[in-house]
Amino acid sequence: MTTKKLTQAAQWIGSANALIVAAGAGIGVDSGMPDFRSDNGFWRAYPALARGHIKFEAMASMSQFEHDPHRAWGFYGHRLNMYRETEPHEGFRHLKTWCDAMPNGHFVYTSNVDGHFQKAGFSEDRIFECHGSIHALQCLRHCNDLIWPANGFVPEVDAENCRLLSPLPLCAQCGAVARPNILMFEDYSWNNHRSDLQHARMNGWLNQVGFERGGVLVLEIGAGRALPAVRGFSERMKQRGAKLIRINLNEANDVLTPNHVELAMGARDALEAIASRLGP
Predict the structure, then answer these.
(1) Phi-psi region for residue 142, left (φ > 0), alpha (ψ -120 to 50) or beta?
(2) Are the beta carbons of 23 and 112 closer than 8 angstroms?
(3) Residue range 186-203: average pLDDT?
(4) SS3 readout for 68-115
């Protein structure tokens, strides 16, 4: 059955005229990044948080920056360094090849904040990061609407204790602590201006791509049910008339219909298996 599904997926990609890549956290696991959605994966990456039984949701929260910015930046600084150092896996190259070949173009919708689609060569104006990016900073107090690159911030982190050792990044306007431009839990001060511009570009493309004529394909990769933003987006695109290929190692069902295929595989394995059926 898996062989039949892979063949069908390859045929759909080969015949599509517009491709939407919808990516969740699962796409990054094959690049060697931790699985933050499981306590075990998260705590293996952050032993200090394991000792305190502190979960991902508690760390990825605005309250951490308000109460202990050095620990908050210990967590996010470690992630920033990791994302800068990690190379996207080979599956990203296949995705870019397929996207570049689409007659009516492509767009990436992702909940990931790691910037790996840009690192893999995807154009900035073809990406919507619905939860923001760790590579951009904003004022913790939201004293202004400025969002600036994190390029000049190189965090020195005590990973064992999850503490930032180097100076905290600061807002140039008011001197408050700067934070990642990421939508966190319990977050009422996220500056969504950058994300809104990306969203508007995507919607402009979606409105022109011609769902009614067929040929639009959604390739969803590594998007689970815990945070359903990506899955919800994929389902909305399917309702508009797109075909859907869903790749998820742990949360795929046995589905093969005329407009929907699900593959219970890891991202890299599935993309490489599809690429082998498409040929050079």
Answers:
(1) left
(2) yes
(3) 95
(4) CHHHHHHHHHHHHHHHHHCCCCHHHHHHHHHHHCCCCCEEEEECCCCC
